[in-house]
Amino acid sequence: MATQSENTDETASFADEVAAGSRPRRNHPQGWEPGVAWNGREGTLTTPPLEADPTTGVWSELVADWGLDPLTTEVVEGSVQVRAWDTHDGRRLRYYRATLRARELDYDRPDVDALCRLVEKRRPVKPLKGPERPDRALVVLIADWQLGKAGEPNGGTPETVERICRTLDYLPARIKELKKAGRPVDTVYLVGLGDLVEQCTGHYPGQTFNVDLDRREQMRLARRLILRAVDNVLGLAPRIVLAAVPGNHGENRLNGKSFTRTTDNDDLAVVEQVAEILAANEERYGSCTTVLASGNNLVLNIAGIPVAFAHGHKAGASGHPAAKLENWWKGQVMGRQPIADADILITGHYHHFICSETSGRTFMQAPAMDGGSSWWTDMSGQNSPAGLLTLGIGTGYGPRGWGDLHIHSA
Predict the structure, then answer these.
(1) Is position 392 within any domain?
(2) Among 1, 4, 9, CA closest to 86
(3) b/e per residue, 213-232, with b = 16+ CB within 10 A?
(4) Residues 215 and 268 occupy one common structural domain
């Protein structure tokens, strides 16, 4: 570093006066008191008396001694000044003063002014059209209707049917709304997540006493409501996919235990029956396809995103639903099951909405449409509002693969 040297007669005269005892002894020349001045960006540092020129390493130590970080603070090149000082005992000391500044870090700092100008001038992105437009699908989650369930806080089957019809009637407006927003729907997925019917016995004590429809009536009503869902979205998207997984209330049970195959399930049966109706009316329902789970869960490629569906009752009996389902999902991954490749897992069964992200994957639970559960409320004090969950899925929604989530209140 370049230095400026200053040595005047004042040093000698002052030393003589000190030796003669005519002035009090001073440890440093006036105006060169050791210290540091710093405003966060720049400042000065004055050293205590030194017998040798400070090196770069010494300057770093001096900077640190005054409480500044030598990694972020540096001495400005060419700013060092020096003043010699003769002491009363014949020694010559030197005092150094240097200008400090914040050190320029190794990485390139962004130009905040340029960034602000970019924000000011940026125009909204226009939606892509034509073949460049990414695929998007609207997924409608038909979960836990439990038709035939009576005696609950929000009513029995008549009230449940009214809630279901109201929410299904929102679907045309939802599809048109997304199209107007520049996110048109290519395919509508109507996915039954299980427990569409209540069944009549074998699932909890007093079940037979608490139903207001028998099993045949429950399934007949479920078919009509599913067909209504299809009719409500018919013609509003190029394709409609009707899908279903089995729930616990759809199981055929004996003495409280399922005694037939997993797929021998009323939740699959009612959707299968609707599929036969659609297939028999090709002219009207030619855009409709039906997919039924061949086991406990189902994996679909929805607009480029692998999505798994399950009722959720196989995850265990204790713990928070999100923790249980995510742990169950991990087990499926370790077992190399088809569900292992899914980016999104969607379930029902627990009757309230949940969304959880872990390691780049999303777990989501759909709310129910039944009248509630007096048993659960009496035990926990909690209740969950009914609703129909819809969301967009596809590569057009970025790295998460989903968006446009909405719960249609019932």
Answers:
(1) yes
(2) 9
(3) bebeebbebbbebbbebbeb
(4) yes
Q: Is 154 helix (H, G, I), strand (E, B) or coil?
A: coil
Residues 6+ apart with CB under 8 A from 387: 167, 353, 367, 369, 407, 408, 409, 410
Residues 85 and 140 in one domain: no
Query: Does residue 94 share a domain with residue 140?
Result: no
Compute, in degrees rounded to 10, the torsion defined by CA atoms 150, 155, 157, 163. -150
Q: Return the CA Rg of the chain.
A: 38
> For residues 157 and 226, what is the distance between their CA atoms, to the nearest angstrom?
15
pLDDT digits (tens, 9 = 90+) for 32-77: 778 888 888 888 888 888 877 887 778 888 888 888 888 888 888 8
d(C-alpha 230, C-alpha 171), whole Å = 10
Place of tokens 């979205």: 233
- Residue 81, H or E segment: strand 80-86
Is-contact 404 178, C-beta < 8 A? yes
Q: Which single residue is written with the structure tokens 């695929």?
A: 135
Looking at the DSSP assignment, which residues form a beta bridge with residue 102? 73
| Rounded-to-integer distance, Cα 291 and Cα 306, Å | 15
The pTM assigned to this predicted structure is 0.73
Question: In this structure, are residues 384 and 371 in contact, taking their beta carbons and an 8 Å threshold?
Answer: no
Per this entry, what is the length of the chain? 410
311-347: pLDDT as tens digits: 998 887 677 888 888 888 888 888 888 889 999 999 9
